[in-house]
Amino acid sequence: MGLTFCNVHFTKQAERVVYLSGSLMKSLKLSGKRNIRMRLGKDTIPAVIKPIKRSGNHIFLTSGVKSAIKVPNSGGVYLRNLQNEEVQIGPLVGILSDGAGSSTQPFGSRTGFIKQLLREGSGKCYIFAFMPRDINWQQEQVYGYFLTGSGKFERKMVPLPDVVYNRLPSRKAETSPYINQLRDRFARKKIPYFNWSFFNKSDVYKLLENDSTANRYVPETHSNPSTEQMRDMLDRHHFVYYKPSAGSLGHGIYRLTYLPKKGYFARYRRGGKNVLLRFGTFDSLMRMLRTRHGQSLQSYVVQQGIRLIEIDGCPIDFRFHMHKNGSNQWVVVGIGAKKAGRGSVTTHLKNGGALLTPQQALGRVFGARADEVLQQAKTTAVRLAESLEVQHHHLLGEIGFDLGIDQDEDIWMFEANAKPGRSIFRHPSLRAEGKASIEHILEHCLYLSKFRRRDEM
Predict the structure, then answer these.
(1) CA 375 → CA 367, 379, 382, distances in Å?
(2) What is the pLDDT of residues 144-192, one digit of tens each?
(3) Residue finishing a domain among 177, 194, 211
(4) Which of 17, 218, 346, 368 is the most buried (most CB within 10 A)?
């Protein structure tokens, strides 16, 4: 199979003819051929090919070809020579999200990130964003959002893409029958679709239980714990985290502490403020939790508390932003160290936390050994990503891990996120990592669509 980067041009002729420069004909092993099938996404048409004298790799598509398979733009893109004299142009990459925003911000708060993806992807592939309602399954077409050179959105109809990067923002929407059907339809059409869905905390812990090597990095955790399990965890560990399985951003999390002779303490966040309550008995603590949450406590998990390393008396943990690269390998792309705000249950920035680089944080705790400790944490993060992917059985291309390092230098995994937020990349020292994150997403799209990179023009 030949793969070549080339420049695409359009002509106004109505017939279905594809003109190829001599070097491109040779690169695609089409010398002497007169007919091909031209493909974009899932659409193919027959076309006549004709060589032209022009240096470099150039392809000229007549309007008959352009309109038939809906080629969206001219410019730099790849060509694949498939079997049966079929040439595929692309890849056609779809970013799936949603929103009820304006024409300039159609994807709401995610619009800036999506624009960044489309901007970086242009010149490497045909990349567009779309919402579930933009798909016409009968026609197998998508009415997508492309980005113009001036940075504005432009709607164009294209075939179903070669690969879909899922950034649907809502857990609730993602479990709807319509979205389940959407995923299944892409799967039946053999269109790679990553990341499949949000993780539930309890699901992640269960998946890692099947891998004893990876599971040793997970604190003791129980889903939907009984009252007896809660009491036992507090008796043995003295402090635990009690958190919703489908929660995010630290919402609904309690830090529960048992101090013999002093009682039970619950720390949580309410109305934008940190709250600390004391209870004389375990039963009164549980009554408070049931009063606040009722039946929803059945979707909670309880997790062993870990004595994390601290700066200025405040615990710190780390967000590891993981990506698959263009060779389908897990790599650490960005790391943010999160220092908890005073009295906060979590290190979330919205709860008063502060963001540091890992070098700043570990340098203050471990001094000259900071790089050694960081390297060990990176190795652990890759190991966890590999294990989670094997156990998950769906395509993953991106994971956000919340990792901690305890005062014995042991590494712990608290949470895994299939659609990690990007707040760490706002740190001035992590902007390069933010750009690398975008590049890794695009490289993985090229990999999944079977467009492997070679020397570009």
Answers:
(1) 14, 6, 11
(2) 999 999 999 999 999 999 999 999 988 888 888 999 999 999 999 999 9
(3) 194
(4) 346
